[in-house]
Amino acid sequence: MTNKPVTESETRKKGSIVGKIFYIIANIIVVFLAGFAMLLFFSYRWMNMTWKRLSIDELLFQLTMPLEGTGGGMVEKYLQHALLPTIIGTVILIVLFLFLRKAKKLYRVILVLLPIASILFSVYIVHDAWVRLGADKYFSKVLSGPAKTADGEDDFSDDFIAQNYANPEDTTLTFPEQKRNLIYIFLESMEMTYADTANGGAFEENVIPELTQLSEENVNFSGDPSKLNGGISYPGSTWTIGAMFAQSSGLPLQIDIGENNMNTQETFFPGITTLGDILEDNGYNNTLMIGSDATFGGRRVYYSTHGDYNIEDYNYAVEQGWIPSDYRVWWGYEDEKMIANAKNELTRLSQEDQPFNFTMLTVDTHFEDGYVCDICPDTFGDNQYANVMACSSKQIYDLIEWIKQQDFYDNTTIVISGDHPTMDSDFCNDVPEDYQRRVYTAYINPAAEIADPTRERQFSTFDQFPTTLAAMGVQINGDRLGLGTNLFSDVDTLTEKYGYEKNYDELSAKSLYMQSIADLSLDNEALSALRDSSVSGKMTTTMTSEQAHSYYFRFSDLTCSAVNKIRPSIVKVWTGDTEEDEENAVTFTSSESTDGSFHHLLLTREMLIAAGIQDPSVVHVKGYAVDVNGLEYEIASLTLEFPEPTLANGEPKQEGRFYLMDEFGNVINDDTVPADEEVEADSTDDSDLMPEEKQGLSENPEIFTEMPDSGQ
Questions:
Q1: By the 8 A CB rule, do 253 and 241 touch?
Q2: How far is the CA of 194 from the CAs of 205, 446, 487, in angstroms?
């Protein structure tokens, strides 16, 4: 049997089929490479917008968390900011290819150059992200582990922290014959930034005048009695438990389990020696007083295992009858009540035989915008956070003045320090970029002299550790503990020795030394439960009246599968329809009901205008449940109208007239009064009533009923 010869037409036909297959494959490869490059670009852009100073270990931790734990609609935002633009760009590219098919030369050039450009661009994005995240240092250390010495021991000779750490166990500490008491006051989110520029702050008007006076009249290491000075918060010390750890151990809280998840551990860096350990070994009675739950962030674990502190937190205050069992505001109970309790405890401690260390943490000045207590002034008008800061300044000043009148004061050193710079979204927006934000610092009645009183020290919160002991009259051999330096001495701090940038870069990098001493349990039940956490809830929105167009928000059925505590829910409000508009949304924090069963919030047109929304006639609203770690879970979204309030008869208000309005925005006097005439109205104290119990709330009930569970 002979083979039939292949004709030229058949050869051309087969070649045409092969060419078409090659053409299709080539197009798929080109589109894939270009689409992948676009996805990398938009993902990297979204990552930079979401986390301003993200490190590789933080990124890896975020990636290990379940999708249900992503806060603030993070998945939706990623789809919107990264995946959607990629899909649109890819579709445009495919359409462009279809149009260019007839222009064969141009098409072939694009077919060759586009994949090359896509590959090069992808490499550039990956390299830039690699460098920015510090992945090279991270993986070289993590994958290889520490080098070994000739004796087989871990070699941390290239680890910045290990090389600069002064171990208290190897340092001689000599206490005075008469041991001094210590009062250490952590001020939540308090910075020297809030003072005016004349005093070293960055604000036009001094928000913390009393604290400014305290610092300048005492010791802050500025070298100038008319200037403030404060500690820099380096990575590992920029949130509350990290700050408390840094100031009492001289180390950054470098952990791989999330900033506030040390409450999942049974120990807290068990191999280190801290301020609490040192004082306990020298016969001190250690006490920690805070107005929130000490379990949060691992504070209970830290202070109970390092110094055997008596923990007097929100739960303790309830147990002791200091506050009613059903009383809860903000994070627990407010500073005004806690300061009154602190006075009682200081009086009691001063009557005991042991020297005491009384450590206190305020909470009213926590972001967002702080808690307005009954004695807060309105000095700064609608700037709530400034008023809360001013209130804290006055309360702490009065507390110090009270302490000075007590018999125990002469033998007591007082340290006042901000824990970390504020995380408030807009309070420091006008602070110049070249201004170094630092925490507030003041040493009062120290038993030490400054080696050079005219020298302006550059220091960090790590330096508080040895400086506090020195202020108590303790002699420190070498004047260094942890990463800190005794500021009363003439020894350079690490900031003065290496500069801010090197310290920041080194402390942002992974430290195998810190990893080795952390002794973390990464597979315990509590941490596993946290990784599998989910939050659900419902939001009900009710119009208080058609006249005022104010709204009452109620968050109920709030549950979290992994933690017992849920933070107050929040409502984000914005105008406009762009992504940037939503990113600049104003956040309002709800209050918890007296029995803790739900959260509630009232919003009026005046509140929105005061918050910076110039025309709130139509606004977008999203409600979020917030878990104990600060992750936000979107549970509802809607659009609401806040038009100009009208009179009861439906007519608009007249310009140049004065109207009395209730807290819901209702005009309560239809008889207009000239603006220059004073009107005196009866005031009824209904602060203890829930909003739904107040008159007028049910005049126009529920225009927007229960939202479904988030499914998260």
A1: yes
A2: 8, 25, 23
Q: How many residues does the chain have?
A: 712
Interatomic CA distance for residues 630 and 72, integer angstroms = 10
Contact 181, 355 (CB under 8 A): yes
Residues 497 and 562 in one domain: no
Element (H, E) at 210: helix 209-217
pLDDT at 17: 72
Residue 580, C-beta contacts closer than 8 angstroms, at least 6 positions apart? none
The model's pTM: 0.68
Per-residue pLDDT tens digits for 175-193: 999 999 999 999 999 999 9
- pLDDT for res 109: 81
Query: What DSSP assignment string belongs to 138-162?
Result: HHHHHHH--EE-TTS-EE-TT-HHH
Structure tokens at 497: 């020795």
What confidence score (pLDDT) does residue 670 get?
A: 47
What element of type H or E holds 544? Answer: none
Residues 198, 347, single domain; the answer is yes
Give the domain range for residue 74: 8-133
pLDDT in tens, 529-544: 665 566 677 888 887 7
In whole angstroms, how far apart are CA 230 and each of 209, 418, 464? 16, 9, 10
Q: Spell out the residues 6+ positions from residue 105 whose beta carbon is closer than 8 angstroms to its own.
A: none
Distances, alpha carbon 670 to alpha carbons 98, 226, 547, 656, in Å: 68, 54, 12, 14
Structural domain count of the chain = 3
Q: Please say whether the beta carbons of 633 and 562 come within 8 A.
A: no
Distance, in Å, from the CA atom of 475 to the CA atom of 236, rounded to the nearest integer, reads 28
